[in-house]
């Protein structure tokens, strides 16, 4: 479990915006209310990797949510390259071969997080994708494999966090997307939880996007989430 000294580090703000200019504007509006930022596909491919380096250079933390999955050698070398950017977290999909390769490639303090099952999936989605197991069982299986392989942490729904914690023990990180403050719209997330409930469930970091990025006052929302988790 994370021993974060700054409570703001428990909130990861998802920079789910079209480009670097919009991301920088949001970061300016957040000011000192946020210290940890997630950069996903859209922003990464629009100049976000250079932004990640700039954020790290001024003392912020970065979560590169790239969900890597490929043949082992490609993953190992790709993770090794990402390690040079100074990011704190990088996601890979929780397939055993992919996780083993990512562990071999990590360096420079980079922590690898394995994505168990996307929080937009429910049992019907898993069945449609060809999985024989319901979501909860699939999450449990992948969490056990990740722990055995030596992954630093797991990305899972807050609804599954308590079960994942029992499987992986106290020393691995649990990072949760699909967090929605009380009264916020769920959007395309099917397995959601409030920030306070997430913290009580033993989650180390929560990822929040639209409730902050779409707010009239993003700084106030970010501060309220941090206070609720505390």
């Amino acid at each position: 479990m994370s021993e974060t000294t700054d409570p703001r580090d428990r909130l990861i703000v998802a920079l789910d915006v079209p480009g670097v200019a919009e991301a920088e504007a949001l970061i300016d509006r957040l000011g000192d209310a946020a210290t940890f930022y997630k950069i996903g596909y859209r922003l990464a491919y629009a100049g976000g990797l250079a932004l990640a380096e700039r954020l790290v250079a001024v003392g912020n933390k970065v979560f590169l949510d790239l969900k890597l999955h490929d043949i082992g050698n490609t993953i190992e070398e790709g993770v090794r390259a990402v390690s040079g950017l100074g990011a704190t977290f990088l996601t890979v999909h929780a397939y055993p071969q992919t996780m083993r390769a990512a562990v071999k490639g990590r360096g420079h303090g980079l922590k690898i997080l394995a994505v168990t099952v996307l929080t937009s999936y429910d049992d019907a989605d898993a069945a449609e994708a060809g999985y024989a197991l319901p979501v909860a069982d699939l999450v449990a299986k992948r969490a056990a494999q990740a722990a055995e392989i030596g992954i630093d942490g797991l990305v899972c729904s807050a609804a599954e966090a308590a079960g994942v914690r029992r499987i992986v023990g106290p020393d691995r990180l649990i990072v949760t997307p699909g967090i929605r403050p009380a009264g916020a719209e769920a959007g395309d997330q099917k397995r959601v939880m409030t920030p306070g409930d997430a913290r009580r469930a033993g989650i180390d970091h929560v990822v929040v996007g639209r409730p902050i990025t779409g707010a009239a006052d993003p700084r106030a929302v970010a501060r309220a989430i941090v206070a609720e988790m505390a």
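The CA atoms of residues 142 and 156 lie 10 Å apart. The chain has ten helices and eight strands.
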